[in-house]
Amino acid sequence: MASANITNDTTNYDETCPLLRTSNVDTAEAQIAEKPKPTPLPKGQLAALCVVRLVEPIAFTQLFPYVNEFMNDLHLTDDPSKIGFYSGLVESLFAISQLCSIYQWANISDVIGRRPVIFLGIFGLAGTTVMFGLSKSLTSVLVARCLGGLFSGNIAVIHSVLGEITDSTNQAIAFPIYGLCWPVGSIIGPLIGGTFSHPASKYPEIFGYQFLKDYPYFLPCFIASVIALIGVFLGFLFLEETLPSKRTHEKSGSPTVSTNGVGATPAPALPEKPASVSKLLSIPIISALALSGFMLSYLGTSFDVVFVLFCYSPIESGGLAFSASQIGYSLATAGAIAASIQLCIMSYLLRTFDSAKMYNFCMSLWPYTFLALPILNLIARAGLDEITGELGTATVALLWVGIAFVLMLSKVASLGYSLSMILTKENAPNAASLGQSNGIIQFAMCFARSFAPFVVSALFASSVEYNLLGGHLWVAIMVTVSFLGTTISRKIEQNSVKTIG
Question: Which residues, including other chains, have CB under 8 Å from residue 76's CB and lie 6 or more apart?
Answer without folding.
Answer: 83, 86, 138
